[in-house]
Amino acid sequence: MRAALSEALKTAMKAGEKRRVSTIRMVQAAIKDKDIEARGAGRETASEAEILSLLQKMIKQRQESATVYEGAGRPELAAQEREEVAIITEFQPQQLDEAETAAAVAAAVAETGASGPQDMGKVIAALRAAYAGRMDFGKVSGLVKAALTK
User: Fold this and answer.
1) pLDDT tens-digit profile of 72-126?
2) Distance between terminal CA atoms of the chain?
3) How far apart are CA 66 and CA 109, in angstroms?
4) In whole angstroms, what is the distance from residue 25 CA to residue 136 CA?
5) pTM of the full structure
6) Model confidence over 31-67: pLDDT tens digits?
């Protein structure tokens, strides 16, 4: 991940793509902050799962900002946020589609032995461990809840 970001930054700088350069630098700075936080917890660097989670969080923030900008009549700022989302998304692994997500939820429910809504936390934790950065957990929680209330 880190090597891919560095290569992308070099390529963007050579091509003179200012938005791409600034977005990649922003991502690298956020990863560096995560590394500092990890050192405080006694680890060398942030794990890949933590980095993927960070990227997902950055994407969500920008999507929300774009929505706010649209509502405030600032389409140019909304477009900027959407460009950043597109750039950050390039560094994430392929997201699971709906069928794969449903299968992963069913497998996690069976694996954890969850029997009702009170076990939702166990199932979500298992999914986070196995699929960090590959699924939207805001949407997945609804699927887990539906699977556990059957």
Assistant:
1) 999 999 999 999 999 999 998 888 888 888 899 889 988 888 888 888 888 888 8
2) 39
3) 35
4) 24
5) 0.73
6) 999 999 999 888 889 888 889 889 989 999 999 999 9
- Contact of 25 with 9, CB cutoff 8 Å: yes
On whether the CB atoms of residues 66 and 78 are closer than 8 A, the answer is: yes
Pick from 33, 139, 140, 19: nearest CA to 88 = 19
**Unique residue bearing structure tokens 């166990």:** 122
Closest alpha carbon to 92 in 54, 129, 123: 54
What is the distance between the alpha carbons of residues 120 and 109, in angstroms, rounded to a whole number?
Answer: 9
- Residue 96 CB neighbour total at 10 angstroms: 16
- Cα–Cα distance, 67 to 146 (Å, whole number): 28
